[in-house]
Amino acid sequence: MRHACILMVCFLLTSVLAVPPAWAAASKIDAPAKQQYRQLKKQLLKQIRAKNYTETLKVLEAIGKLNVPISAALIFVKGEALLRTGKPAEAKIMFEKYIGKAGHKGKFFNKAGKLLGEAEKEEKRLQARLRRKNQEPMVFIEGGTFQMGEPGEGIVDNPLHAVSVDSFYLDRYEVTQEEFGRVMGRNQSYFKGPDRPAEQVSWFDADQYCKEAGKRLPTEAEWEYAARGGKEGGDSSGFWYNGNSGKESQPVGLLEPNALGLYDMLGNVWEWTADWYDADYYRSGSTHNPKGPVMKESKGSGDAVPSTPFALGKPVGVRYKVLRGGSWRNKKEFVRPGFRDYYTPDYRRSISGVRCARDK
Question: What's the half-sphere exposure (Cβ side, CA atoms, 13 Å) at 132?
Answer without folding.
Answer: 24
